[in-house]
Specification:
The protein has about 375 residues and is of the alpha+beta class. The protein folds into 3 domains: about 160 residues, no CATH class; about 70 residues, Tetratricopeptide repeat domain (Serine Threonine Protein Phosphatase 5, Tetratricopeptide repeat, Alpha Horseshoe); about 80 residues, Serine Threonine Protein Phosphatase 5, Tetratricopeptide repeat.
Length: about 375
Amino acid sequence: MLRLKVLIKFVLFFMMTCSGLYSKQTTLSDFLDELSYKVVPAIQDRLNHNYYQPNQVEIDEIIRQLEKHHFDDIVAYGALDVESETASREQKVERFKRLRTILTTLTDEVRPILAENIDEVSKAGKVLGRIDGVLRNKFDYKGKNLCFLGEALSNSCLYANCNALSLIYYSVLKDMFNQPVVIVIRSEHMHIRWKFKNKYINWETTNGKVLSDNFYKEFLGSDYSLEIGNYDEVLATTYYNRGHDKEALGNAKGALQDYNTAIELNPKEAYAYNNRGCVKDKLRDIKGALQDYNTAIELNPKEAYAYNNRGYIKDKLGDIKGALQDYNTAIELNHKYVTAYYNRGLAKKKLGDKQGALKDFHMVETLGNQNVYGEIEELKGK
């Protein structure tokens, strides 16, 4: 059966090539209209993977359309399908149509610039500037703290944050034109990086500017960065974001499933392990949480959150001294980390260090949290 499918695909590919229907530069302008109400999945390869379940579509029709339109590697569509898990059929269709319009427009704008005979760095800057201009002037881009591409596509304006914008840039530049572009994940942020032989430029999609690594380090308070440059790794960020939202809504089991998928797709992402550790703790899998925090620290030894969280788990397991060491490290990495000061104060209190505990609780007050009055009064013996 598998050999038959491969043979059929080869024949289709040969027929399309000979007839002129196959083109790397297909704009996909009529793609969703032809599918009518059907929801388009991300790529054909993922139809058999356990983390993708197509909705309200027939597999054979999807394969036919994918082969016809060379629509098998555009990650923004895959991300949008994952995000639209609970959306209505009408919402899904409208989101896909709007995304198609955006990507098609950007493709038409970028193609002639890439054909220009100028140096690569200048060409990259010109392309990135054109994308930023089109998103602002033609699609009325406005910055907003949204995690999902689907939300950005559900308004008259293109309200979007770094996540949604990075997906759009990446889909056009890497998926459609195979340019040397990656997404860079930083502490609670992501942006585009265009790589050259001996250098690269960081493009901040939210304001349309080239920014240095030092800027991100100072602005975000962390020098953590991770390049992701293939379909699975980029799609993992969508599962991570969806898991984060499910966790915030109290759906711990659903969040765990999404974090599992994010890690399966990209086992190098420290934040996914950290967040999964939090969910496992809520689900009373203490040892599993500890293991995830250990992995998060191995992947990113400069992230204060993971140390604080691991310290909290060690405290639960009775390793107060080990917890204290992790809280110390978290505070060394982030001197304004209120939760770490509070947790360290509690640990010192358990170890009999009243003065040290008082000092930490006073620091919590100084940083703006007044919820430790009772702790301070108790330590003072009042």
